[in-house]
Batch of 4 targets.
Target 1
Amino acid sequence: MLRVVVLVSGGGTNLQAVMDAISAGSVTNTKLVGVISNNKTVKSLERARSAGIPAFSVSPKDYADRALFNEALLAKVDEMQPDLVVLAGFLVAVPPAMVARYSGRIINIHPALIPSFCGVGYYGLKVHEKALERGVKVTGATVHFVTEGMDEGPIISQKPVCVEDDDTPEVLQRRVMEQAEWILLPQAIDDIANGRIRTENGRVVRTQ
Ligand code: GAR
């Protein structure tokens, strides 16, 4: 059983997609052992609690500086002894010590086709605002392993989504979630839980 901790910041629709896929049996060999948010009152914590999953907040507001927050966050993750850490809309920088300790065992969902519209400053709705500003006709989502450089780790999976002429950032965000994110993230967890992928020379390859 793959022990998974999910880190979130907001609404938690990706978390919900993972919980639903586990309940439906489309993600197997996986147990959600905890959900952690950097915000105290977010819907994602409610979603986790109502599914009986231990849910915690570790807020930077409760710590004197970033280093202390980073330590507390890492300690909370460690406490749950995860095999995999999933960033499902976790909009704060992952502590470097966490990246080092869980090397190859942290994945992130990003709402664009990396390497487009990613890196520092590209998160949540901003990604879709930038995509619309640039006038791209296709965007999408990416699941990747987390390394030190933001959004630079090996890509596990990607899915394209069409942009329509009258899209607003909110409309595009929803379409990318529905057509890509909520499918890709559970699939990636299932692939990892069932040993279907491995990383070779910085690239993810399928073994089955
Ligand atoms: C999702 O679109 C996710 O891809 C994005 O935040 C949103 C969270 O929504 N993550 C990033 O931008 C990371 N760089 P959710 O809380 O409803 O899952």
Target 2
Amino acid sequence: MFYHLLYPLSDVFTLFNVFRYITFRSVYALVTALLLSILLGPRFIAWLEKIKYRQNIQEDVHNHQKKQGTPTMGGMLIWGSLVLSVLLWGDLTNAYLWLTLFLFSGYALIGFVDDFLKLKKKENKGLSIKGKFLAQLVLAGAAVSVLISLPGYSSTLYVPFFKSLQPDLGWFYLAFALAVIVGSSNGVNLTDGLDGLAIGPSIIAAGCLTIFVYVAGHAELAEYLQVASVSGVGEVTVFCGALVGAGLGFLWFNAYPAQVFMGDVGSLSIGSALGFVAILCKQELVLVIVGGLFVIETISVILQVGYFRFTGGKRIFRMAPLHHHFEMIGTPESKISVRFWILSILLALIALSTLKLR
Ligand code: 57M
């Protein structure tokens, strides 16, 4: 909104020229989303408590019973602060920005329905696994189909470390992109089992993607670094900035001991956005490093379930996903979360180094 209202006034007030710059608007999108979520947080959490949107913890596997009744669906706060901030600071004529908002909001809606059903139904059951998966596929399919049809976007896959290896996946790109979005969304969801555990690495990954998407949208920088250049995609930097801000604001309340959980409305939407932004800036393969922590958690589940079935009941980890294993061997919850953040920072730095290693 500011871009449309204030930038045209730069002829009169030269200072308003700053509203043209993506970097300026992204920083303030971050600040706005951060302040909104921190300032609205206490009232929002009190409202969740009032309407009884509270986590129901049925089994007490890791002494989580003490968390019984913690308000959940805090992802609505992330969604609200992010969307408001993007509407204020974004260029609202940019198709990439709207597509990202569409997918993020669609996944938030799937998560919302799932959380809501879990709260309302006695057996704590949300959407069926099939139903949830299908809804995720349909939404991702719609967003990627529009994306592929946009002029300037190609179905080429850029392989990090091998600058000349750029296969055009054609229509197979659609299936590939769906796997990235759905995988990323469920990876964040699986990780969301300890205070601050999912939001910390999400903020770090979003921060890292902020740089990637800015570079992809900047023709000279992209050429200099020899990465894919996607004209117009730089505007999504504003979305990434807002995601970092809304995430930090949520962490304010979700840090141990958590006053609120994000729920599926938060985890599914954040995961989908990370996947989609990686697709937009043609860094789909680098996402495996950027979101490496979510990948590790997911692999721990795949290995555990596979080994369990193969051996007829034996386990590799005390329990999967991996954070449960550390809980079971006695590592304090906040230590696990902070160590996982440190690992995420390390992975983000390695991912950023791929910008130079080509
Ligand atoms: C949801 N949800 C948390 C909260 C959060 C296939 C299998 C690996 C699936 C997996 C699973 O269901 N994962 C997805 C995990 C839950 O958090 C809620 O859910 C939202 C995210 N979707 O926002 O609303 C609990 O996590 C704790 N929590 C915090 N702080 C937070 O900030 O402490 C969450 C956020 C909350 C709270 O206690 O109630 C969850 O863990 O349920 N299933 C599992 O993870 C199960 N693992 C398992 O069965 N492992 C087996 C399999 C793989 C063979 C094994 O290793 O043998 C664990 N789930 C639970 N207890 N509930 C097992 C222990």
Target 3
Amino acid sequence: MNPSNTSVLLIYTGGTIGMIENAETGALENFNFEQLQKHVPELQKSNCSIDSYQFDPPMDSSDMEPEAWRKLVRIIYDTYERYNGFVILHGTDTMAFTASALSFMLEGLSKPVILTGSQLPIGVLRTDGKENLMTSIEIAAAQDKHGNPLVPEVCIFFENHLMRGNRTTKMNAENFNAFRSFNYPILAEVGIHIKYNYSVIHTIQEKQELKPHYLLDTNIAVLKLFPGIHENVVAATLTIDGLRAVVLETYGSGNAPRKQWFLRLLREASTRGIVIVNVTQCSAGTVEMERYETGYHLLESGIVSGYDSTTESAVTKLMFLLGHGYSPEEVRERMARPLAGEITL
Ligand code: ASP
């Protein structure tokens, strides 16, 4: 059901979706909302009312920064009572990071926040942007017969799939089908009808208050292992000035070399209070450090499991937890608990 008295706030941050080809020069230029309405006349036909907010200037999402996440949280918090849902138009490159960050920063969210974008600009004939935009608006406004939102969480909608935001990864730079949620089921599949997979969508037990969070600590590094990695590369990363946490991208089910120098460096860093989270380089599956000896040694060195977390989610969750002043031990403990459905235990 999509009643006509619903309203959605469309927030345009930038990215390919909002670009229009200049007829004379052929160059891609950012649009404003009036231009968008001209290129997507379908917007007028939508039976919900749509207001817009535009980032000025719009940003390529490769330039995304926590400051812009704070701005999004502030806009949503300030207008929360006025709208049934929110659609964020965002570049695809870092959309999974933004979706993950927002899922932690918007505690107690009980309305849809749908991020979408496109691979081809909205002004291009074959664009995937119109479809993504129109369906996202429909999902953001969708309610059950009691007037409760169908999807009260931060999601990415892209090419027929609605996904939990903090479970997504951009995995294709060319196909329309750019995002995947490898470790969590699709929340809705869009064809002629929108088929919601209710059993995996977040449910709200009682009226909850939105609690916005703005504190993030970005003193984090991502260290991706590869055969032959040098001791000085690992040592230099783990001794970065001010470093508070590392997302260690390991092999398979969370395995890493057993070399003495490697385990010693990890142990020393953990003892100094650096939180090291083990996330697998594999797209799908989970970290199980107890499974092989090569993983077990990491456990002994004080490394904590990232379970089936994406790197995007682990990085932003660490920023969130460290930003809130938790001690290393408290952060380690909270990394093992889902805050917004980002890991499966
Ligand atoms: N570089 C663009 C961005 O992320 C790509 C896109 O929108 O798809 O903003």
Target 4
Amino acid sequence: MPSHSPDAIIIGAGIIGASICWKLARAGLRVTLLDAGTVGGEASWAGAGMLAPGGEVETRDIWLDLALESQRMYPAYVAELEAESGVSIDYRRCGAVEIAFDDTECQALTSRAALQRPLGIPSQPMDRSDLHRMVPAFDRDAAGAFFYPGDAMVDPRDITRALRTASSAASVEIREGWRAARIDLSADAVRVENSRGDALHAAAAVLAAGAWSSEIAVSGITLPELPRAFPVKGHLTGYQLSPRTLGPILRRGHTYLLQRSSGFTIAGTSTEHVGFDRSVDAQVVRDITARAGELLPALEGERVVAAWAGFRPAADSPGPVSQRAADSRLWLAYGHYRNGILLAPVTADRISREITGTA
Ligand code: GLY
């Protein structure tokens, strides 16, 4: 291996790859961070930033343990990142209010809350006055509502900006526009090559290319077949409202609303299996706008000032793909699907400890 080679190469500079990179650099490793586009430019840029096991998890499975552990780690992760980068991160443990419009929805919410409580996801039923006090902008009747005090939100664009700054300060080499095409494994090293034939070598590498992870060929050592990564597109829309119009996250089924401290308010979402189609579909935007207006009638006269789409990093796997590839020098960190922003701290902690041998 050339003497100037890094100790570790991270393939993919979304929130997962960049968080692993930062942790490794803080542990004293020389790290190169690669991305086909820009740091945090894909799913991490598009994500709303709900840190919400209450909205996503309802069974005892691998997602649950990781989500709860990462939720506990978030305040320290944000504080350390802010301190090291000087970038202020919009993070609030604001809780979430889940709304039912009719008795059937209310029964479903009640059963779900009862399933979640023993799993470690607390919630409390809300009456009309609780709802009015916590979400004054919700000026319509609900058949029922539950408050999830543990749910939080963060602006993922602040996080990736902070990760870039903190990583640069820790001497990470960041290469943007470097599209990895092939990973060649030997017993004690990794070679990563891009589509132009440029190659980098290191003692370890992490494949964290989100929905694109399966587009990179892996050869050299025979490994069990790696779980297939694929994109699940989601649209979001944005409104510019007065700050503090909305305190907690507001949810009804797959419709959600959350507000940044600036007042920018995000409505989601859609779940589309359309490959890497980047177009913003006016019909899907209209559907989200209609559902958001139903959830919060105060939005009905408001202009949609932004509409965008991103690719959730899904995988054919029962949980996120977060492990060493057999006994090779390659670690896998993809397939975080709807929970990538939430699972960044726990994934970074576990993978970096394995690589540095402190697990
Ligand atoms: N976690 C929210 C979403 O995937 O839309």
